[in-house]
Amino acid sequence: MIKKTTIVDIAKAAGVSVSTVSRILNDKPDVAEETRQRVLRVIEEQRFAPHSAWQQLRSGKSRFIALHFPQDFNPLSQGIITNAALRCEEYGFTLNLIVGALSENDLLGIFRSGQADGMILVEILVNDRRVELLRQQSANFVMIGRCADTSGLSFVDSDIGAGVDDAVAHLVNLGHRAIGFITLGQVTPEKEYGFTAWARQGYAAACRRYDLQDYARIADLTTESVTATVHALLAQHPEITAIVTPQDSAVAGILKAIAAHGLRIPDDISVVGLLDESIAEVTTPPLTALSFSSRELGFTAADLLVARLDGSADAPRQILVRPELCVRGSTGPAPA
C-alpha cells in the first residue's frame, strides 16, 4: 500500500512546525519568505499538493480562467467550451464556466477577489458592456467573437460574413436570383448579437455584388417564430428559390415552413444552413451547410489568453476563421 504524504511529513522534511506548514497552505502572511519557499520546495518534491495548488502558492495566481457564456442567444456550444477547457488544462489552468448574467460588480469581482487570472468572453454583442468594462480596467481577457470596436483587443471569431458570401455565391452559380436570409434574435441598439450582425452584413454585401434583392428577415429565438417568419416570407415572395441561415437553431423552422408550402428540397427551393456535420449528414436531404471548427476556436482563445497571462503576447491578436461550405443534397439548380 502506498503511504500518503501528510502535513506532518512535510513539516518534518522542511524542519518546521505543522502549524507553519498549515499557515503556508492557507497563504497566511505571517511566515518568513525563506521558510515559505523551503516548505513549497518540499511540497513540490513530495507531491503533497496538486501541481496547480503549489503553483498558486508560489505565484500568488489562482491558475483559474473564467469563461463567460451567457445564454441570451444560443444554447451552450459544448464543442467550444470543451476544447477551451482542454487547452487551458494543457497550460496548467482550470476553466470555470459562468452561464448567468453578470453585473458590473460581479464581473470585476471575479478579478478583484482572485477567482480568475483571466477571462474568455463568448456571445459578444456589437456593443458589449463586458468588453468596455474590462478594457477600461486593463483586465486580461480575450473574446470568442467580436464587437464593433476591437482596437487593442484580442479575439478569435468565425468569419461568418465571408461564409455567408460563399453560400450566396454557390447559389448564384446554380442560377438562383431570389435568395432569402433568416437570422435569429430581435435587434435593439443595446443588444445586437455580433455574429448575426456580421452575417447580415455579409448577406447584404453579397446582394450588392450579385445585384440581388435583399430578402433578409429576423425571427425570434424559437422554432415557431422561424416557421412563421419563413411562411410569411414565402407567401409574400413566391419567387424565392433559396434560403440561407447562419444559425443552426433556425434550420428546423425553415424546413417546417417549406414543407407547409408543399415545396420540395432542392427541386423547388434550396437551403443552406449552419449545422454540425454529423447532423447535416442525416437530414433529408443532407443539408448543404457552413461549418467551423469549435476545436480551433476553443484552442485559439486559450492560446491567446495564456499568452497575455505569461507575458509572451507582444501585441493584440485578431484571428478570423473562415467557415467551410460543404455542399450536400439540399442545394440544386434554380427551378425554371
Distance from N terminus to C terminus (CA atoms, Å) equals 79 Å
CATH class of the largest domain: Alpha Beta
Q: Unreliable stretches, pLDDT < 50, 5 or more residues? A: 50-54
CATH homology superfamily name of the largest domain: Response regulator
Our estimate of the beta-strand percent is 15-25%
What's the count of strands?
12
| Biggest sheet overview | 6 strands, parallel
Number of domains: 3
Rg of Cα set: 26 Å
- Helical/strand content category: alpha/beta
User: Order of strands in the sheet with the most strands?
Assistant: 2-1-3-4-5-11
**CATH fold node name of the largest domain:** Rossmann fold
N-to-C series of helices and strands: HHHHEHEHEHEEHEHEHEHEHEHEE
How much is the average pLDDT? 87
Overall 3D form: elongated
Could you state the oligomeric state of the chains shown? single chain
| Tally of helical runs | 13
CATH architecture of the largest domain: 3-Layer(aba) Sandwich
The helical percent reads 40-55%
Task: Walk me through what this model shows.
This protein has 336 residues and is an alpha/beta fold. The chain has 3 domains: 7-59, Orthogonal Bundle (434 Repressor (Amino-terminal Domain)), CATH 1.10.260; 64-158 and 294-321, Response regulator (Rossmann fold, 3-Layer(aba) Sandwich); 160-292, Rossmann fold (3-Layer(aba) Sandwich), CATH 3.40.50.2300. It is built from 13 helices and 12 strands. The strands form 2 sheets. A 6-stranded parallel β-sheet has the order 2-1-3-4-5-11, sandwiched between helices. Strands 7-6-8-9-10-12 form a 6-stranded mixed β-sheet, sandwiched between helices. The chain is elongated. 38% of the residues are buried. Mean pLDDT is 87; it is low at 50-54.
